[in-house]
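In keeping with the milestone schedule agreed at the kick-off meeting, the structural modelling team has produced records for the first pair of proteins. Each record is given below as a sequence line and a structure-token line. The laboratory manager (R.T.) confirmed that both were archived under the project's standard naming scheme.
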Amino acid sequence: MLREFEDILTQYEPMISACMRKLNIYKNHELYKQSGRIALWRAWMKFDEQKGNFPPYAYRSIYGAMLDELKKEVHREEYIDPVEDEKLAVIIEQSFTTSFIHEELGDVIDKLSRTEQDLLLWIFVEGISLSQAADRAGITISGIKKRRERLLNKLRERLA
């Protein structure tokens, strides 16, 4: 039975790659390939010949699994949002509460625009999600991500 699936996997590996191209997946290739392989295996295990042909069923299963994985990734970015530099996040939080400890950072933060200061406060002190920050700022989530990245780069440059 395992040998049979290995043959199926070899045959349908191009379909997994095609689904990745169709969904414009450009990073985490191995994660999505594995997701597609698992979906193929599940489809192979569940398939009933009386209900139709296997290739369309396999394609829908693979494509759906990759879509689910993309949704999970968006959720992770939006709500669990890993900060690129954890040390910087800690320093920022401390500077808002006790700026005298980090005078240099406090000076840098004071020179930021009010919008940038608000963004720092929302994300790093209040700990709100990117979607909530986007709502407050009246822009899209991708806009908030770009602003956050520019802000962190600005802080890094000024503190270096």
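The second protein of the pair:
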Amino acid sequence: MPPGGDPIRQFFASIGHDTAENPVFDLDNRGKRSIRIDTATEAGRALMHRLVADADVFLTNVRPAALARAGLDPASLMAANSRLIYASVTGYGLTGPDAEKPGFDVASFWSRSGWARLTAPKGSEPFPIRTGAGDHICSLSTVSGILAALHHRTTTGKGSLVDASLLRAATYTLGSDLSVQMRFGRIASTPPRGRAINPLMNFFCSQDERWLCVLPRTGNPDWPQIASAFGVPDLAADPRFAGARARRENSEALVAALDAAASALPFATLAARLDAADVVWSPVQTPGELMEDAQFVAAGGITAVPARDGTTRASPSGPINFPGHDLTPRGPSPEPGEHTDSVLAALGLSDNEVATLKTAGVVS
């Protein structure tokens, strides 16, 4: 990374906003430490090797050739530390013609994988994934690989190379569709809401203009309950909608009928009826509405992150909870090089040695 650190530190500046707050960077870096080492120098490379000598995991998103130039490639580091878990995160993987290509989630995860084409309804223009969504999915797969490698080390004593990429994280996430493509050579596009392949698996707007998502179980069990909840029980017996195939062939008529029924009912009434029938459904919420969602709050969805001014900032929690354990971050996201001195002291360097490295520009 450049001396200023991860480019996401400049997220708001890159979109034309001038603010000292950066919750996007804080989300992924809260509680971490930061040290700056110039690996273009021989002394910097030697220092990195000292840090990795007894490390459990080395995690990097730098492209392979740059790592090799700095002597931080898997072969070099794992030769010095045979127990090391070396985790590489790239756009396209460590092998192949595009292994050295730069990648971000809108490109490698969203666009190249097929997500962008399949998600946009047929006939509409592609649109980007929301900030960091593909990155976070890839990070979960990377953690899974690291944990598997750590388990392997407990039985063999040997480290492993973990090769994670945005592209493979995306294609696995899209795996249900891609497995159909691989088996049959084609996959259905995403139709507009009114022509849904399963018109019951859809979005409907209530009288008070609140949207909800309905997800029936496979087959027909939920159809009579859905029709009743929408206040149109007779639709369940209509031969046009009697089975899955008939509903697909008459999708526009069925969606129009359910739209009309939903628009005549308050959201609270629809919600209560669907709950009483044990139908799977969910409100379609804005982020602001989510902040007031009692279940989201009760499930620990908000984490209080310590700020530098002594207050706390609300931030999304991680995806997993460990009841009985304090998961509060140890501190805010670090400034670039904030912990250089303390990390090098823990490595055994004296104050004079650290000062010499700083004077030479090796660390900062």
